[in-house]
Amino acid sequence: ANGRIYGTVAREGAPIDVPLRRRVTLLRQVDDMPIQTQWSDAVTGAFDFQWIETDQAYYVKAHDYEHNFSAVIADNLTLENGGVELMP
């Protein structure tokens, strides 16, 4: 387990996007098994799932607990396709 998936949660805005604190869940794509859950950073919107297996495909979903937006999903995250990186 030496991979990671990271990113940010933000609302589109002008002139810049606005970072958001939201619950983000990492799931294994083959069977929808939850692997990790965390809250994105309130200031930066950043999340970082570390120490994950690199031979799996994953998806990440972020929920808006305020119910202003639909959930956002990024799928087919793999070492080969992108999204999964080796740990430094």
Strand order of the largest sheet: 5-4-7-8
Q: What percentage of the residues does DSSP assign to strands (E)? A: over 45%
- Largest β-sheet summary: 4 strands, antiparallel
- Over the alpha carbons, how many angstroms does the gyration radius reach? 13 Å
End-to-end span in angstroms?
Answer: 12 Å
Number of helices: 0
Task: Identify low-pLDDT runs.
Answer: none
Number of strands: 9
Given helix and strand content, the structural type is mainly beta
Helix content: under 10%
Shape: globular
Order of helices and strands: EEEEEEEEE
Mean pLDDT: 93
Task: Give structural notes.
This protein is mainly beta and 88 residues long. It is built from no helices and nine strands. A four-stranded antiparallel sheet has the order 5-4-7-8, with no helix packed on it. The protein has a three-stranded antiparallel sheet with strand order 6-1-9, with no helix packed on it. The protein is globular, with a radius of gyration of 13 Å.
What topology emerges from the helices and strands here?
Elements lengths: L2 E6 L1 E2 L6 E2 L3 E6 L4 E7 L6 E7 L5 E6 L8 E6 L7 E2 L2
Antiparallel strand pairs: 1-6, 1-9, 2-3, 4-5, 4-7, 7-8
Brief summary:
With about 90 residues, this protein is an all-beta fold. Helix content is about 0%, strand content about 50%.
